[in-house]
């Protein structure tokens, strides 16, 4: 089935909910529809099913305009899976699935045909819902109900499944089960999937393409990695995120960063000497407390380096696994010189980054206040045969302030 | 627990359900057999004479059989009094139960009944005012039923208009306007009764629902809308199923919820109005019969509609038989019997819906 939407608009009275949306979904594709609350996702699905009377001339199904089809023809093209289904009436699972045959009845007088029974049984088997068929629908769990509803959708023998946040009321295993089932139907039955999804990471993992709506407009449509960029998510959802790649599934995933509440910046500058992941939490704490932070020298790929980038902190970088060069060291000293405080986090010291400790010594010489964090259980952070430990002790004896936790470090520069 | 009932029956019959629904056929044949037995008993049981007080001598079984098939002096009692009465009771019970099933589906509420859209209150106003405005002079014995029918339909139309906006039927609004208009018309009826004191007995009998002298003409007049109505509701069974999962789901399954609701409201109103016009307001049949059948056959309207229809007939024939025989020489309004059975059962369902699943 080929779905072509060409300039779809919809208004509730004066309020325009969908504005000139154009996109195409080709046969067998898995397309996710995303966007913040109120961006028009559900409205768009309802325009496709014609539950809402849109200008359905804008929608073409296999080149046929949607408005020329009968309700039952539409129902045998699109099967809809809502967020949740419930009824107080004692329908069995099989009763619910049998409802999927409604678009295919020949006339109201014709009885249940063998084809109907087979389609229902088939749908139950494929979705793994056969054991739920004779149980009362209202007694099933949310996940079991969704499974029955997907079976009903299959019994409709549709060309495409339209899903409206099918996992929103499910727990994490239910979410994954449901998405796996949908993906399997997509692959095995080459069923076209068009799904409103809320969870960005589920969408990134399962969708071939993602369409992102924002205030009724189609912001972008493309592969997950094209659509789910930090910039796009920032502009559509107003949330700062980091986008990473999952080493196991090789799909991308998104992690929220600070909710972008602006912290009052008081301008006090702190330079952080860190590395090996030791500086991240401190960087974040300082940042959240309104300090201006700079850091260096960090190797690219070091997680401290990534965090500094995400916080948009000035950072002196060195190529991965390389020794700190003189240029980087000089740059580090320059940043350090602009700061009022210097904090040394308990980073693993090796021959490559020993210069960062020397930078701390320079700071003392420059008359900066230097705080050294030394956790009481600090063991294997010295990879230069005790030289680092001696060096740090020397720093302390020359006036560096010694603390053991991030909180104490924060306290010491406040006083 | 309703759910466990459903589970038990499916546990035993899961196989037959899968291979061709033997159980529903079994239930429906069983109900037909019960109906036949009820008819048999209802026709044979009772006293000579149309209504109790004056004549109250018993008839033996032999005399009864002779009366039906021979041509004794009792033949008239059977063919012109008792059989049409039983037939009308059956038709009205069937019509009310079937309309009740449809209304519960339209309102997606198992507490709905055929009177919820104002049929009974409208009919009551019609019945109460018929004598007052002198229509009896023109239409004779049909004045009261005719006016009851017309007022019922007008009331339903007003309620329907109140519950409709932009061509859509909003069932919540419809339900509330039905309740509001019913209580308003209830006051009107009280007022009419207060004025027309001389017709008090007759009106009370009508308001409680009773099947006094029944003619074959009445049976014919009620049969037409009831049979057509039951047929229409039955063939829309699949759509009613879908409607119970919400209007959007019904739409997504290819049913048109708006025209379905309109059709069901119209058909139920006509059937119910025709039923109450002659015999008055017989309560609870349209409420509890669908409930009881749902406990037995489940919620699938392809089976529920015929089962409720048949059981409605059984229930009202039985109730009427009790009403005319339980007190020697006295005939109770059948509405008292149905309310006596229905009230407690309704409370039981209400309690259970609060504490667990609804049937």
Strand content of chain B: under 5%
CA-atom Rg of chain B in angstroms? 21 Å
CATH superfamily of the largest domain in chain A: P-loop containing nucleotide triphosphate hydrolases
Mean pLDDT of chain A: 89
Total beta-strand segments of chain B: 2
- The second-level CATH architecture of chain B is Orthogonal Bundle
Distance between the termini of chain A: 69 Å
Number of helices of chain B: 16
CATH architecture of the largest domain in chain A: 3-Layer(aba) Sandwich
Can you give a write-up of this model?
The complex is a heterodimer of chains A (415) and B (359). Chain A has helices at 41-48, 71-75, 93-98, 114-126, 142-155, 172-188, 200-206, 224-227, 230-237, 280-288, 303-310, 326-338, 355-366, 387-397, 406-414, and strands at 3-12, 15-25, 30-34, 59-61, 64-65, 78-81, 160-164, 192-196, 209-214, 217-222, 241-245, 252-256, 269-273, 292-299, 315-318, 341-344, 369-373, 401-403. Chain A is α/β, with parallel strands linked by helices. Chain A folds into two domains: 3-234, P-loop containing nucleotide triphosphate hydrolases (Rossmann fold); 269-414, Rossmann fold. In chain A, strand 11 and strand 12 form a beta hairpin. In chain A, helix 4 (114-126) packs across helix 5 (142-155) and helix 12 runs parallel beside helix 13. The radius of gyration of chain A is 29 Å and the shape is elongated. Helices cover 75% and strands 1% of the residues of chain B. Chain B contains 16 helices and two strands. Chain B has helices at residues 2-20, 22-44, 61-69, 75-106, 119-132, 136-139, 143-162, 171-195, 200-208, 216-235, 237-243, 247-252, 257-279, 285-297, 301-325, 334-355; strands at residues 164-165, 168-169. In chain B, strands 1-2 form a two-stranded antiparallel ribbon. In chain B, strand 1 (164-165) and strand 2 form a beta hairpin. Chain B starts with a helix and ends with a helix. In chain B, 51% of the residues are buried. The chains are: A alpha/beta (415), B mainly alpha (359). At the A-B interface, helix 2, strand 6 and helix 3 of A face helix 1, helix 11 and helix 12 of B.
